[in-house]
Each structure stands twice: as structure tokens, then as C-alpha cells.
Design brief:
The complex is a heterodimer of chains A (about 110) and B (about 110). Chain A is mostly beta strands. Chain A is built from no helices and eleven strands. Chain A has strands at about 5, 10-15, 20-25, 30-35, 45-50, 55-60, 60-65, 70-75, 85-95, 100, 105-110. In chain A, the strands form two sheets. In chain A, strands 2, 4, 5, 9, 10 and 11 form a six-stranded mixed sheet that branches. Chain A has a five-stranded antiparallel sheet with strand order 1-3-8-7-6, with no helix packed on it. In chain A, strand 9 (about 85-95) and strand 10 form a beta hairpin. Chain B has no helices and eleven strands. In chain B, the strands form two sheets. In chain B, strands 2, 4, 5, 6, 9, 10 and 11 form a seven-stranded mixed sheet that branches. Chain B has a four-stranded antiparallel sheet with strand order 1-3-8-7, with no helix packed on it. In chain B, strand 4 (about 30-35) and strand 5 form a beta hairpin. The radius of gyration of chain B is 13 Å and the shape is globular. The chains are: A mainly beta (about 110), B mainly beta (about 110).
């Protein structure tokens, strides 16, 4: 059974600082997703990572994938308050039709 | 930009009642999903649907749950006899299995069972 674990689960950052969220998964996967969720809202797609070594960047967020280590990272550069949200990674298992298995989520709070 | 829509946005029902949650996936998508999120917890997969049949389902998706595509646009999730623990946000998603394999999520239906 595919398990997905994120850490940290809670992250309190100062504006301007850098930090990384980690996502580990337990079995072979062919796709990894990062989503953002604001309170009471739906899931906004940030990145889809398809292959080993994939790196994608959008603004202050950069995601990478290491399929050998079964690890993805979401790096936040020079955090700003608007990045405060919950971030989920989600993994499609190699034998799945499309089912995504989500991590627990990381609640990010950026303070002035 | 095309989007997944869901109705209603909030449904309150009494325990034991049947509810139907409705979704309109993106029009050229062929793969549809339901997920749920209990307040403060992670998102959990319920079921996937393709070519008018279930592709995969989770342990949560027991005999109380069913899905249907009654016409060319709607995709529904029915819960036959709701329990208190069914209270959650239910998200519909769809994808086209194109190069990006993105799954696009709808805004969700908050189901409250009293």
C-alpha cells in the first residue's frame, strides 16, 4: 500500500526566509503532484513532476523529484505572507489508474 | 479557463438520509474522481470512474456509496444512508490523461450530517 508522508506538518516562517517541505513516498510512482489549499477552499495545482530529476519553478516555489530516493521537495524562497496556506503532495502509484494518495499536508504560516 | 463545478456548495442532512452530490467535469475529460477531506485532515481518495464504470475504489467507498454519470455532463456521488462520520468536504476531480496528467479539482461540497 502506498504511503505518503510530509514533513514538517506545521511550518512557521518569517517573511524573507527560505525553507523546504519534504514529501516521502513508499512505493514506485510515475507522477507526483503539489497542491495548495487555502482555508475552506479547493485544491490548486502547483506542480506535476513526471520523471526523476524533474525540477519546476513558479515564483518563489520550486519543486523537485528524486524517484530513486522516493522523495520530493518543495522549496520556498524569500517567503511572503501570501504563501500562507496548506501544501499537499500527492502521489499516483505506478499500478493505479489515476488514484492520488495524499500526504498529511504542511500548514505554512508566514509572519511579517 | 475550463473548470470543474460542483453543486451544492453546502448540504446539511439528517443521519440516515440519502444525499446526491453533483459534479460537472471539464468537458473533454474522460476520467473522473471523488475525494473527501474530513475537517483538518488529509484528502482521501474514494473512487475513480472511466467509460461508465468504476476503475478503482477505496475501502471507504462501501455499499453506501455509488457513482453515476447520468448524462454527458454530470457525474454524481450518492450516499444512501448518511452517517455522522460522512461529514466532510467532497471534491470531484477530472483529468484527460494528456501529457501533464493534471487532475483538476472542483470547489467542493461541504456535507454536514446531523
Amino acid at each position: 500500500e502506498l504511503k505518503v508522508e510530509q514533513n514538517p506538518l506545521f511550518l512557521s516562517m518569517q517573511e524573507g526566509k527560505n525553507y523546504t517541505i519534504y514529501c516521502n513516498y513508499s512505493t514506485t510512482s510515475d507522477r507526483l503532484y503539489w497542491y495548495r489549499q487555502d482555508p475552506g477552499k479547493s485544491l490548486e495545482s502547483l506542480f506535476v513532476l513526471l520523471s526523476n530529476g524533474a525540477v519546476k519553478q513558479e515564483g518563489r516555489l520550486m519543486a523537485s523529484l528524486d524517484t530513486k530516493a522516493r522523495l520530493s521537495t518543495l522549496h520556498i524562497t524569500a517567503a511572503v505572507h501570501d504563501l500562507s496556506a496548506t501544501y499537499f503532495c500527492a502521489v499516483k502509484g505506478g499500478t493505479s489508474y489515476g488514484k492520488l494518495t495524499f500526504g498529511q499536508g504542511t500548514i505554512l504560516t508566514v509572519h511579517p | 479557463e475550463p473548470e470543474v463545478t460542483q453543486t451544492p456548495s453546502h448540504q446539511v442532512t439528517q443521519m440516515g438520509q440519502e444525499v446526491i452530490l453533483r459534479c460537472v467535469p471539464i468537458s473533454n475529460h474522460l476520467y473522473f474522481y471523488w475525494y473527501r477531506q474530513i475537517l483538518g485532515q488529509k484528502v482521501e481518495f474514494l473512487v475513480s470512474f472511466y467509460n461508465n464504470e468504476i476503475s478503482e475504489k477505496s475501502e471507504i467507498f462501501d455499499d453506501q456509496f455509488s457513482v453515476e454519470r447520468p448524462d454527458g455532463s454530470n457525474f454524481t456521488l450518492k450516499i444512501r444512508s448518511t452517517k455522522l462520520e460522512d461529514s466532510a468536504m467532497y471534491f470531484c476531480a477530472s483529468d484527460d490523461r494528456g501529457l501533464t496528467y493534471e487532475q483538476y479539482f472542483g470547489p467542493g461540497t461541504r456535507l454536514t450530517v446531523t
